[in-house]
Amino acid sequence: MIEEIYKRRSIRHFLQKPIAQEDLDEILTAATWAPSEKNEQPWKFIIIRGEERKAMVKCLKKGIMRNRKGDETAIFSKGYDKFIPSAIYTARVLEQAPVIVFVVNTKGMDYRQSYPSDKYMMELADIQSISAAIQNMCLEATARNIGSLWTCNIFFAYDELKEWLHADGEMVAAIALGYTDKEIKAMPRKPLAEVVEYRGEYPQPKDEVQEAAEAE
């Protein structure tokens, strides 16, 4: 799987070539084998294909425009308007992708409400579980030479899309799937020395400790 980890890319150009049902089933099965807190498996996958993509993109664009105009009901404040162009571009990408998978946290809590800290912590645990499922999905797609785009730009139209999906729970992300003829170069990664901090060391085996003492 290390090869797929290195090969995975965020794809933003898709060919109009359908994904075989067998491949899609295996990608989704891989998602369901992710670890989850207390084995709750809080995920649900809603698959958008064909003409349904147009209705989905229409909802997405409506939400983006609501945020762009600074509507009082908009989710994002004015400081986030710099991300609007990226969201518009994502809408175009999702419109061309043959398959879009909406991932829903079936135990998710309404983001507009306030909750006790313990419920919030459990929400974080569920989102971690769902994120692992999404990563499995992207890696299995890569293994089958299918491109993927994991995006949260759908949040600009959270309310519109949630109403359109009409599913219990809260949206976590959308994943576009499809074939591409574009070669995408890997983005640079921070070196381990910058992101890893070691604390403590493995205890030495007794024979090594004894050898060290004798050497002294």
Fill in the keyword field for this structure.
216 residues, alpha+beta, 4-stranded antiparallel β-sheet, 8 helices, 4 strands, globular
Structure explained in plain terms:
This protein has helices at residues 2-7, 21-32, 52-68, 84-96, 117-143, 158-165, 192-195, 206-215, and strands at 43-48, 99-105, 147-151, 170-178. With 216 residues, it is an alpha+beta fold. A four-stranded antiparallel beta sheet has the order 1-2-4-3, with helices on both faces. The longest helix is centred in the middle third of the chain and has 27 residues, at 117-143. The chain is globular and about 75 Å long. The model has no long low-confidence stretch (mean pLDDT 92).
Contiguous uncertain segments of 5+ residues: none
Radius of gyration: 22 Å
Q: Give the overall shape, derived from the CA principal axes.
A: globular
Q: Tally the beta strands.
A: 4
- Mean pLDDT, to the nearest integer, reads 92
Rounded to the nearest angstrom, the distance between the terminal CA atoms is 46 Å
Instruction: Note the main sheet.
Output: 4 strands, antiparallel
Structural class: alpha+beta
* Proportion of strand residues: 5-15%
The number of helical elements comes to: 8
Which bin fits the share of residues in helices?
40-55%
In the sheet with the most strands, the strands line up as: 1-2-4-3
Q: H/E series, N to C?
A: HHEHHEHEHEHH
Task: Please render the helix and strand layout as text.
Layout: H1 2-7, H2 21-32, E1 43-48, H3 52-68, H4 84-96, E2 99-105, H5 117-143, E3 147-151, H6 158-165, E4 170-178, H7 192-195, H8 206-215
Antiparallel strand pairs: 1-2, 2-4, 3-4
Helix pairs in contact: 2-5, 3-4, 3-6
